[in-house]
Design a protein that fits this description.
Layout: H1 2-9, H2 21-31, E1 36-39, H3 47-57, E2 63-68, H4 72-81, E3 85-89, H5 93-108, E4 115-118, E5 123-126
Parallel strand pairs: 1-2, 2-3, 3-4
Antiparallel strand pairs: 4-5
Helix pairs in contact: 1-5, 2-3, 3-4
Amino acid sequence: MRKIIMRALTPDYTFIEASDGVGALAEYRKHAPNLVIMDVNMPNKDGMCAAREILETDPSANIVMLTALGQKWAEEEMLRIGVRAFVTKPFRPEELRKVAAYAVKARQQNGRGRLSVEVGPNSVERT
């Protein structure tokens, strides 16, 4: 999944990688990146727990989560804890680029807008 994300967002973004939720939390604390993209399903500490911990220490963290189809419970919880956006897998590279650009722009404007991308008719909803 990390390689798919990197291919979709190269050359516009610089990457810091982590192989699991524990590593993602450590890398966030070390680098405080402008954007975090992580999967809900990760080993050792799932993406939801990692996102929750990041947002507890830094409420302005800019997190985009990747979810599998049928994980509506996860999407609702992500929005509740403050994740900026989520992308439903499988996704097209241009969908991820659009969400990443939106998330970075929204953070630069100091907004807390939300964006969801649903795969199917390729609709993008702003809420």
